[in-house]
Amino acid sequence: MTASGGGAEDPAVRAGLARLVARDAEVGDAAAREERARRGARGPGDAPYAFPPNTSQVHVTDWVHRPWLSPLRLVYRNLPRPLRRAIKRGAVRGGAD
Amino acid sequence: MTPDAAGAASGALARTRRSLRTAGSRPAWLPSRGGAARVAGWWRVGMDAAPPTLGAADWCVVVPAGEALAREALLHLADAIAAEPSADLLYGDAAHPTGVRAEPWSYARRPGWSPERLLGHCYTGGVLAVSPALVARAGGPQVLAEGSAHDRALRLGGLARRVARVPEVLAIAAGPDSRPEADADAVRRHLTRAGVTATVTRDDAAPAVRVARRIGRRARIAVVVATRGTTAVVRGRERVLVVDAVRSLVERSTYRELEFVVVADTPTPEAVRAELARVGGPALRILDYDRPFNFAEKNNLGALATDAELLLLLNDDTELDAPDALETMVGHLEDPGVAVVGPYLRFEDGSIQSAGHVFNPEPFDLYRARPADTAGPQNLLRVAREVSSVIAACMLVRHSVFDEVGGLCTRFPANWNDVDFCCKVRRAGHRIVVTPHATFTHFESKTRVARLVESEVARLGERWGSWLDDDPYFHPRLQRYTNVWKTDSTSQRSLDEALGPTAPIAAK
User: Fold this and answer.
1) Interface contacts (A, B; CB < 8 Å)
2) How far is CA A68 from the centre of its chain?
3) Which pLDDT score is estimated for A6?
4) I want to staple B439 with a disulfide (CB 3.0 to 4.6 A). Which of B27, B291, B321, B335 is the partner?
5) Are strands B338-346 and B394-398 parallel, antiparallel or unpaired?
């Protein structure tokens, strides 16, 4: 079956390629409609898609160790343990709600 | 429910029980904000002689002895149940103590539901939330109590109507080792229940289980290769890439039901065509392509020229490594839910070129340029698993599905036609699997960086923006814009964990 030819200029092949393109467009359009609906639900989504900004942690947000917090940390660390636990629990609960 | 309580050490049991009390004794955390489901953490910790019952519980949370339930676990579960009321099986992440004071925890972040990966190892972990109806379908609590965590996950996963991943820490593990357990016997039993004939072998070093499904009927594969007859120096020798790609399959592959469709640009030298014809023999056909370069259209053209049941889209700069690679890949297609299978591709120096794609949100070749023996966190790279997309440099696809979704999109002439194609396949309800047990070499430049073209990004996002932003086989708490499975931290430790346990865990 080694043969050359039967390339993109063959009418039958051209029809086959057109059929695939049409099917791709059909599937792609349906996906695009769903995508627009999803983006619309999140807010105005008319702008062309671009990868969102990188919100990964690129540097350590170590706010606990900022100098201005050290007096507060000193006080907190010297509170009685039950009080510290109560504060911590409250902070966690506040964050979750 | 702590199914393995009878054999557990009393200390481990006490730890589990304490965590259950802590989690369950905080009614302010329950029920969820949505209030649609009430989580009743049902636990019987001990060595009761009587078979356990679920009573009136709305949910059953399985906690292996020695593991602890995270304090917020029930809250996260309640939220997840409220968000996905149809889910009847849920699992989530685990925290592992490191023993290092500066970074006391490492986190086993788990991907979305991946049944193929579950055959390889118990990636879901031991802590599962199960609806009582599912427990009953699986044979009741006693049946679940008898097996390993892997056995439980397989039984429940095989019967669940909908499985949900909770991307939050649900479990506190007892030790630092986050490698999932792998129970080969449980996998054998599971496959028997599912009526699948396969050879199951256990890789003790990983640990992981390899499932090689028996191929019922050896379907014919058409290997579609787009080329322009390029030559390159490979391993110190100048070679015509496409000829060697075809030769490697003809000479090395043990899968003999092959035909070749080479789509050659018009400038392809006559000598190359003649050599191809000689190597491929009667099973090879060359199609001329005289249009501007369009990788997608060239592959579509090749697919149209054959009625083979399976298509192997193959770059001309690839070479088969393992002789049984095609059998392995075809074996995955014995699962009717799987439509596309990708092998691992390696660079010429053996390092990883692609172990499947990950969208985070840019599509990356997972672990590109990392050493070949990289295990990844939780042995991610050691097992066959579902992915969102695989590279079109080597992709086995059902011909019927290729036609069903309209082939590769010609609006992506060079980049991301594979990503778009795989998204179309997944949208049509099929799964995509990548396997480490089939490997090809891809003689691509290791330093090649795909140029991002805004218009192409927009075109891809127009169809799949939300899919790119939320890859189910990735995790929202992992670092974005990187090709490794890495926690969102800048520490060296997070990178070490992303590469996997190449050194003994205790040494870290």
Assistant:
1) 137
2) 34
3) 58
4) B321
5) antiparallel
Stated pTM of the model: 0.85
Runs of H (alpha helix) within B333-379: none
| A32: nearest CA partner in chain B | B463
The pLDDT of B453-458, averaged and rounded, is 87
**Neighbour-count burial for B156-182, b at 16+ CB within 10 Å, e otherwise:** bbebbeebbbbbbbbbbbbebebbbbb
The domains found in chain B, sorted by start residue, are 5-212 (3.90.550), 221-494 (3.90.550.10)
The token pair at B306 is: 């054959």
Strand partners, B394: B314
Nearest to B121 by CA among B477, B385, B485: B385
Q: What angle do CA A41, B113, B109 make, to 5 degrees?
A: 90
d(CA B415, CA B468): 15
Cα separation, B124 vs B150, whole angstroms: 9
| ipTM for this prediction | 0.85
Supply the range of the domain harboring residue A76.
63-96
Q: Are B405 and A27 in contact (CB under 8 A)?
A: yes
* Candidates A6, A35, A57; nearest CB to B305: A6
Side chain identity at residue B251, one-letter code:
E
Q: What angle do CA B56, B122, B102 make, to 5 degrees?
A: 100
Q: Which residues contact B231 (CB under 8 A, 6 or more apart)?
A: B238, B239, B240, B241
The closest alpha carbon to B477, from B73, B111, B46, B28, belongs to B111
B73: tokens are 């676990």
Q: Are B173 and B97 in contact (CB under 8 A)?
A: yes
Which one has a higher pLDDT value, B504 or A89?
A: A89
The number of distinct structural domains making up chain A is 1
- Residue-level pLDDT at B102: 75
Closest CA to B118 of B197, B42, B211, B29: B211
> What is residue B442's three-state secondary structure?
strand
Q: If interface means Cβ-Cβ distance under 8 Å, which residues of chain A face chain B?
A: 1-9, 13, 16-17, 20-28, 31-32, 35, 38-39, 48-52, 54-60, 93, 96
Residue B65: which pLDDT band, with cuts at 50, 70 and 90? confident
Provide the phi-psi class of B106: left if phi over 0, else alpha when psi is between -120 and 50, else beta. beta
- For B202, counting Cβ atoms within 10 Å of its Cβ (0-12 exposed, 13-18 middle, 19+ buried), the class is middle
What is the amino acid identity at position B321? D
Given an 8 Å threshold on Cβ–Cβ distance, is B490 in contact with A58? Answer: yes
Question: Which tokens in the block code for residue B115?
Answer: 């049944």
| Of the candidates B33, B31, B74, the residue with the CA atom closest to the CA atom of residue B170 | B74
Contact: A55, B288; criterion CB under 8 Å: no
